[in-house]
Amino acid sequence: IPLTINDGKNITICIGDELILQAKGSSNYLWNTGDMESAITVKPTETTTYNVSAQKNGILETIEIVVTVENCSSNKKEEFKVYPNPTHGLVNIHLPNQKERVTISVISLTNGRLMFAKEVKASTRGVLTQLDLSRMLKGVYILKMSNDSFNETKKIIVH
C-alpha cells in the first residue's frame, strides 16, 4: 500500500471549516504539526501544506497535501443559478455550494398554489437538476429551493 493522505488529492475548503486528514500505508506517522496519529483534524485559516512521514520497508517516506483555504462568503452571489429564465420549458438549476439534498418547489404566483415539488440529491458538484415546466401555463412562478441550511426563492417566467 503506498503512503497517501486523503487518497492523494489536494483539498479546497472554506475559512472556518475543519478537515480530517487521514494518512494510510504505514503504522507509524509523524506529521509536520507534531502529531503522531494516522488521522489529524486541522482548521487552517490560510492555504497550508501538510506533510506526513512514515517508515516503509525501512525507508523513511514523506508525502504532502495542500489544503487551499478560500473565503466562501465572497461567493454568495454564486449560491445558485437558474437558467434559462425566461424559459419555454426546460430549466436548469445549479446549487454548487450545496452538499445536502434540496427540496425544489414551483409555486404559481397567480394563485399561490404549489404546482409540484421534488427532492434532489447532492453530488460532489453540489445540486444540479433540470425541471420540465413545458406543461405549465404561461406565466410567472416562484421557484423555492430549501433544506435545513439553505432557503432561496427565484421568480421564473414560463413563455
H/I helix tally: 0
How far from one another are the termini? 58 Å
Largest sheet: 4 strands, mixed
Estimated structural class: mainly beta
Secondary-structure element order, N to C: EEEEEEEEEEEEEE
Q: Which ranges are low-confidence, i.e. pLDDT below 50, for 5 or more consecutive residues?
A: none
According to DSSP, the number of beta strands is: 14
Order of strands in the sheet with the most strands? 2-7-6-4
Helicity, in percent? under 10%
Work out the radius of gyration. Answer: 23 Å
Q: Please indicate the percent range of residues in DSSP E strands (runs of 2 or more).
A: over 45%
The average pLDDT score comes to 89
Q: What sort of overall outline do the alpha carbons produce when their principal axes are compared? A: elongated
Can you put this structure into words, describing what you see?
0% of the residues lie in helices and 55% in strands. It is elongated. The chain contains no helices and 14 strands. With 159 residues, it is an all-beta fold.
Write the layout of secondary structure elements.
Layout: E1 4-5, E2 11-14, E3 19-24, E4 29-31, E5 39-42, E6 48-56, E7 59-70, E8 81-83, E9 90-95, E10 102-108, E11 114-120, E12 127-132, E13 139-147, E14 150-158
Parallel strand pairs: 2-7
Antiparallel strand pairs: 1-3, 3-5, 4-6, 6-7, 8-9, 9-12, 10-11, 10-13, 13-14
What are the defining features of this structure?
159 residues, mainly beta, elongated, 55% strand, four-stranded antiparallel β-sheet, four-stranded mixed β-sheet
